[in-house]
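Internal tracking record. Fields below are filled automatically when a chain is submitted to the structure queue. Please do not edit lines marked as system-generated. If the sequence contains nonstandard residues, flag them in the REMARKS field before resubmitting.
Queue: standard
Priority: normal
Entity type: single polypeptide chain
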Amino acid sequence: MFPEIPEFHVGGTWYNDSMTTKGHTMKDGTYLKLNDTFILSHAKTGYWVAIGETTLDDTLDGQYVGVWTNPETDEVFCDRSVWVADLDTAGKLAIQFVQKAIWDCANETEIWTYTLV
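SYSTEM-GENERATED OUTPUT FOLLOWS
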């Protein structure tokens, strides 16, 4: 009944139109939406925590969205995200929102939430 969303393969990951903006594929990272443009964040400290699934179309100006590919399953996630300064708060928030991992900006890697309990 609904048209299929076209999928395409980029750098080992499958994407569909929900992960593109203005014809460009969204790579893993956290983006700030300003004036309908997604700008990659270059935070060097703190942690990005996802607080709920979203789509690029549902992201409002001034909001952050994280695009993350689970390295264990190759599943791509698109989540509304917030920046948190300390690991303890980031971990508690991630567990509250039932997240698999948080992003450690300083070390440029995910931290699995099961390691934080």
